[in-house]
Amino acid sequence: MGSKFHTDLSQELLLMLNDADDHNVVIQTGTGQTIKEFRAHSNILRARSPYFKSALSANWITTKNNNMIEFKKPNIRPVVFEIILKYIYTGEVDLSNQSGDNILGVLVATDELLIDKLFNYVQDHLIEKQFNWVKQNYVLVIHTVGKLASCKKLYDYSIESICQDPKPLITSKDFPSLDKDILYGLLKRDDLRIEEIDAWDYLLKWGIEQTSGLGSKNNDRKKWNDNNYKALKKTLNRFIPLIRFVDISSSDFFDKIRPYRAVIPHHTYEEIAEFYYKDTLPKTTTFPPRNAKVQIESKLIRLNLACVIAGWIERRNDKELSNKYNFQLLYRGTQDGINVNTLRSKCNNQGRCIVLVKHQESTKIYGGYNPLGFMHSGGQWRGTSESFIFSFESGRNIQNTNISRINSNSYAIYECYNHGFSFGNTFYMNSDNRIYFSNQGYYDNNINNVLSPHINQSGNIVPQEIEVFKITTC
């Protein structure tokens, strides 16, 4: 049975490196005042690195001094090369006390020197042990490794991490210097977890720094002239279509987008303005909302409110949804006719549903969640603990949302031939095609806020629009 004495071999080779009296290679690393020379043995270098095997061959060597091979690597810092040289001689590396910058330098140098085992180890080390440093230096890291095909693992991991939490990148002092192609790729992604108004704000910040004549010395738009706006427009031209303007609130549009209308192409701005003023979706919008865990094609509510509803279904924050939701349109009053029988014919036996009702004389939206689905029967109560009634002040914004959950399970849904739908005879569509409101005590104490003001007035409205959606999860 054989024995292995790797430890002794490593120590002896380390002594050989430190006392290299018989060396035949001098490698000069660094530049300027950081230049340092290392003595080494060509046989060991060639055996351990395919790069040196070629570089130290007779066909490549051009500089000799008294039979000493002189080799220059100004692009590798001495501290980095010392780590690599020790690994070449001993097969050992200790990165525990090294700075992230030095470790990144080792990664790049080992890629060039074709030392695959050390390269793979260092790349994994940066991901597993140094990622807090990577997060603090995203721009340096992705600019460095983005140019190296072999560093795809670290690059992809960094980009995925940025998408999960963009804040360390966009708030860093280096963000304004981010490469335009990398920024474009990030803004194009649907999984970039960023509020759209923040995407706009930081795009502007980046664009101002990237534009000649602007930057930190001229970032007050009140002092800009037409040429400044034209220059910024040119900088941002390819990025503007990546902003999901329909996911920005009307107040943020007025305060933060409208002042920069000069940098937005005219046709794009007109479509955006028409959306905010007339609720008409832009024709040229090609990108879906970011991180869309909910899909809905509604004329009454925007995606942000559909996400709120999905969060209510799961009883959690809509940003933490465990499922992907698809709201499939079953019925639309203005399309199919506002009629009890038509609604029932399209919605019965379809599974769980959401009903949305638009008030004819205001922006208010009323709704209800039926987890049991609708069926056609005469005078039957159906029980569930999951139904709820809700209202929004408008179809766009999440301010002033109200929800009332069932508190008397046996009286959640009322099935009746004369009703298009009925949430406990509290919120229902009657045979006259009007929507009625009445606090029966079946839903919790917030019901008056949900139904207000109509529960205390006429008690019914003529709907401008009704939509019913079947809810499925992926």
TrEMBL record:
Q: Where is the BTB domain?
A: 23-97
- The highest taxon in the source lineage is Eukaryota
> TLDc domain location, by residue?
299-472
Question: Entry's PANTHER family?
Answer: BTB DOMAIN-CONTAINING PROTEIN-RELATED, HL07962P-RELATED
What this protein is called in its record is: BTB domain-containing protein
Which lineage is the organism of this entry classified under, starting from the top rank?
Eukaryota, Fungi, Fungi incertae sedis, Mucoromycota, Glomeromycotina
